[in-house]
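Review form for a predicted model. The reviewer records the input and the model, then writes brief findings.
Reviewer: anonymous (R2)
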Amino acid sequence: MKLLLHTCCAPCSIYPVQILRQMDMDVMGFFYRHNIHPFQECQKREATLKHYSKTIDLKVIYQPDYRIEKFLQSVVFRENERCRYCYHDRLKATALVAKKGKFEGFTTTLLYSKFQNHKLIKETGEAIAKKYNLKFFYHDFREGWKSGIEESKRLDMYRQQYCGCIYSEKDRYFKKQ
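Model under review:
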């Protein structure tokens, strides 16, 4: 299957790419950036992915712009539902690129994280896939969580400490007194 992999960062792509290639998938990455805050964080993640993807011969499509304002406007006053919006926006963007590029399906490195809502990601991906006449490939990549972390440390990769948005950054670092 020719598959487009939404890729949030290099460390989260290690295990999914390995598994998808073992399954004889023809994998290409897609780096979505509109939710990542601040911009310097986005640049670090992108630079790390560019370096890593060259070492494993993974072609990646990179979004050329940075629409953080649209992301923030879409979740303001709905902060508790921000992940629902974010999953939808990232997977829809991936599906549109997959459709244009004549991919059979798409998936996401979000399925590697033990911190993400897999049920919601799967439901969202399947609904979007149906709308665009594609396949959403669901695989629980969390089985490789530890090995992916170990490999990213061995490779001395930049490893972010939060999902990407300003709200997840706050959740990670701000502790009420």
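Findings: The domain at 2-173 is CATH 3.40.50.620 (Rossmann fold).
Further findings: The mean pLDDT is 96.
Recommendation: see findings above.
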